[in-house]
Design goal:
With 452 residues, the chain is α+β, with helices and mostly antiparallel strands. 18% of the residues lie in helices and 38% in strands. The strands form 6 sheets. The protein has a 6-stranded mixed sheet, with no helix packed on it. Strands 19, 21, 23, 24 and 25 form a 5-stranded antiparallel sheet that branches. The mean pLDDT is 93.
Length: 452
């Protein structure tokens, strides 16, 4: 397959250069793989960013695990290697999973794919096999066109490095890789063509002493890239260079959380902010609530996504008046259903019960605002005093009876001794307190049953 430079996307190809097992590729903290079963010693699948909310142009972190690793649901466990790269429109990379320097360790090396115009063909040799050092040689294969000038090139690489042989004249070539002078891999029929670059990967852990000669061909993989026509380049073998990146520098999403505290029967709201320094936050969503009571949500129009990379995104969290008093954990996730960075945070919510003291304060506020007549306010304050005393003495039935009287009086005097809206507010608060007392009384009854 010939790879062309992407125009409206960015791409990362994956190569598994380890002999022993297939791999899965996890992206940006996802607990499920995006690419699965990348087989050993093969050019695997490609990941593309397309600029949409699901796959914006930004920094992506890639983590490698064994295929079907049981720890896949735990993002920081079972990772064998990782690296990140900034994917912008038109860029192309190949990420190679290969052996590391220490025993039983691994590395992910990301190579930039070079689409520069060229008069003739180019060869890029990438060393990702088990041996730490190797040498390579390319020359026209036996029986190649004798009219084409003989062109032999060679180089030496450490694992994770690459070199280019530029301006190779179109011909059939033989590429050999040696370790300490011994043949470890070869391609006996490498077709160099104008306007193409061949990226060759020395992969795996070949053992020439126990491997059939022809099987050594399996340890050189070839990826073909189409180049635009252009002027002739200088004819050289470039100096060894490291991979574009071998590290994960992706920056995590950070959150700024509001203090969500309010009273039962009242709507509570707060604004949560999420920022990815090298990416977008395209959405914020509630993924869990403990305990799950009442109406707690982010409205459909409550999210403002990042406008550019590094800009904050905001979401309005709304708590309905039907949410009972108590403490809640609201679990919020950045970029759900997107391959932009996923991160979770827990927002704390405290819904306080309505008390007789709060009812008394509301009555006084409405009196000061001239929304309730002074005489009627005094009557209501007497009721709140009785309610407070009853609750303090654990006389919950009496408190409920007095609350019913309170709510009935403010409703009967609506539009007369008390303004309509003030009446609704006081009635709502009284009923919320009544519901809280009912739950308290039920809890006390359950405790008594358990005690016996």
């Amino acid at each position: 397959m010939t790879v062309e430079q992407p125009i409206n996307t960015a791409q990362v190809w994956f190569v598994n250069a380890v002999d022993y097992f297939p791999i899965d590729v996890f992206i940006n903290g996802s607990d499920q793989p995006t690419l699965t079963d990348v087989s050993s010693l093969e050019i695997g699948s490609v990941f593309e960013a397309d600029g949409t909310a699901g796959r914006p142009f930004q920094t992506y972190a890639f983590k490698i695990r064994r295929k079907d690793d049981p720890s896949r649901g735990q993002p920081d466990i079972g990772v064998l290697a990782e690296a990140s790269v900034d994917l912008r429109r038109g860029l192309s990379f190949t990420a190679v999973f290969h052996a590391g320097d220490a025993p039983y360790t691994y590395q992910l090396s990301v190579f930039a794919n070079d689409f520069r115009a060229s008069g003739n063909g180019r060869l890029e040799v990438r060393h990702t096999a088990f041996p730490k050092n190797m040498t390579w040689t390319i020359e026209p294969k036996p029986g190649a066109d004798p009219q084409i000038p003989f062109d032999q090139r060679s180089g030496a690489l450490e694992r994770g490095q690459w070199q280019q042989a530029t301006e190779l004249v179109e011909n059939d070539y033989r590429l050999e890789v040696r370790v300490d002078g011994q043949l470890y891999a070869f391609n006996k029929d490498l077709e160099i063509e104008a306007e193409k670059m061949l990226a060759t990967y020395f992969v795996g852990n070949p053992e020439p002493a126990t491997t059939e000669l022809n099987d050594l061909e399996n340890y050189l993989l070839v990826q073909e890239f189409k180049l635009p026509p252009g002027p002739t380049l200088q004819k050289v073998v470039t100096a060894p260079a490291p991979a574009f990146t071998q590290t994960n520098t992706n920056q995590p999403v950070s959150f700024d959380l509001p203090e969500l505290i309010g009273f039962e029967s009242n709507i509570i709201s707060g604004e949560i902010t999420a920022t990815d320094p090298d990416g977008y936050v395209t959405n914020l969503a509630i993924v869990g609530i403990r305990p799950d009571f009442g109406s707690i949500r982010i409205p459909d129009n409550g999210v403002t996504p990042s406008e550019t990379i590094g800009d904050p995104a905001t979401a309005i969290v709304c708590v309905g008046g039907d949410t009972p008093a108590g403490c809640y954990d609201i679990h919020v996730r950045s970029n759900p259903q997107s391959l932009a960075d996923t991160a979770d945070v827990t927002l704390k919510l405290e819904v306080k019960p309505v008390t007789a003291q709060r009812l008394s304060l509301l009555v006084e506020n409405f009196r000061v605002q001239a929304r309730i007549e002074a005489g009627f306010a005094q009557e209501l304050q007497s009721l709140t005093d009785e309610i407070a005393t009853a609750v303090a003495n654990d006389a919950l039935a009496l408190a409920q009876e007095r609350l019913t009287t309170f709510a009935g009086r403010v409703e009967s005097e609506a539009g007369a001794a008390v303004e309509e809206q003030a009446s609704k507010n006081l009635s709502r608060e009284a009923k919320a307190m009544s519901a809280w007392l009912e739950r308290r009384q039920k809890a006390a009854e359950n405790t008594a049953i358990c005690a016996t």
